[in-house]
Protein: Tetratricopeptide repeat protein
Amino acid sequence: MSTSASTPTSTSSPQYNKPSILSPVRLLEKLSKIDEGSRENTPIPSTATLMMITGMQSIGKNQKVAGEKLTKAVEAAEKSKNQEELAASLLGLGYFYITTTDYDKSIQLYNGSLAIWKQIHGNDFIHLADLILDIAKIYQCQNNEVEFKKTIESYQTLFKNNNKTPPTTF
Structure:
């Protein structure tokens, strides 16, 4: 993946309380392009999906297994060439790295996922908002005020482009 993480630009950046970032599973229903009518017909999960599920279930219980399964989920999704599956798997692995406080890896994976979701839905798809806000929170965890502010501006612009009032609290 060619995304690159930004590092804090100065050590004098204000310290933030570490925000809580929720599991990305909550984002998948909003972002998935699965036809609403077909949700009653349970699809057979792919290898990537199964690996992601077992990896997410292992977070906080067995971090080694979680990391291995989520890495395998990304590898399987890359092989399948299913962009939606890859975007979801990148989020899962990125969330794993949040739980290990490896924010550099996490931000790369979240930004990679965002880029794929934008290809799928377009830049102004309102359901990208929660993902963009999570990315801002990761920058906040890194004390990277510059990228945090840029990402919040992007978040607010997304609402404006959809003729919605952007939230004022994050």
Notes: Residues 33 and 53 are 19 Å apart (CA to CA). Confidence is low (pLDDT under 50) at residues 1-15. The two ends are 29 Å apart (CA to CA).
